[in-house]
Design brief:
The complex is a heterodimer. By secondary structure, chain A is an all-beta fold. In chain A, 0% of the residues lie in helices and 56% in strands. Chain B is built from no helices and eleven strands. By secondary structure, chain B is an all-beta fold. Chain B is globular, with a radius of gyration of 13 Å. Chain B starts with a strand and ends with a strand. The chains are: A mainly beta, B mainly beta.
Chain lengths: 118, 112
Amino acid sequence: AQKITQTQPGMFVQEKEAVTLDCTYDTSDQSYGLFWYKQPSSGEMIFLIYQGSYDEQNATEGRYSLNFQKARKSANLVISASQLGDSAMYFCAMGRSYSGAGSYQLTFGKGTKLSVIP
Amino acid sequence: DVKVTQSSRYLVKRTGEKVFLECVQDMDHENMFWYRQDPGLGLRLIYFSYDVKMKEKGDIPEGYSVSREKKERFSLILESASTNQTSMYLCASTPRGYYGYTFGSGTRLTVV
């Protein structure tokens, strides 16, 4: 079974500072995907960034980057220059190929609540 | 933009009632999912469907059933609601291929 671990239930960061949210995963699959989602207090899940298991370069999307260390099975999210609007829950997810669907089946971690302090 | 619409934002039901949560997506996605979200537990997969009339159990299917009669609509059914089914329910969809999901805005269900 797939397992995603986010060890930080809550974190604080000063505005304009960088922050790293930890995520480790456990799988025996060779091909998989890693995702990060943001959930503001309004409740919608917003896709942030994706890394494929065969991608050699770390994924980046604007202020978000994914620090992928395959041997350590970690996929940490780095947010640079934090903004007040970054305050939210952040979920790490791993996608396992589901052949019947021809798509990923996502398993989520328990989330990290990030609070940005002015 | 892909849109996933959940029919109710908030719902209050009584114990023992039959409850329908509706989800509609407008981008012809093959795959649809139902998750429940509880504090400290993250998102847990209830059921998913990769085609019309197809359904697969997720990690916590007990007490739930689903229906997918049309490609764009995926319904979650609580046959006899119980208080331990009070939760946030999130619907998601994705096309065939290896992509992330698009989520609806969620239905917060309270069973009293």
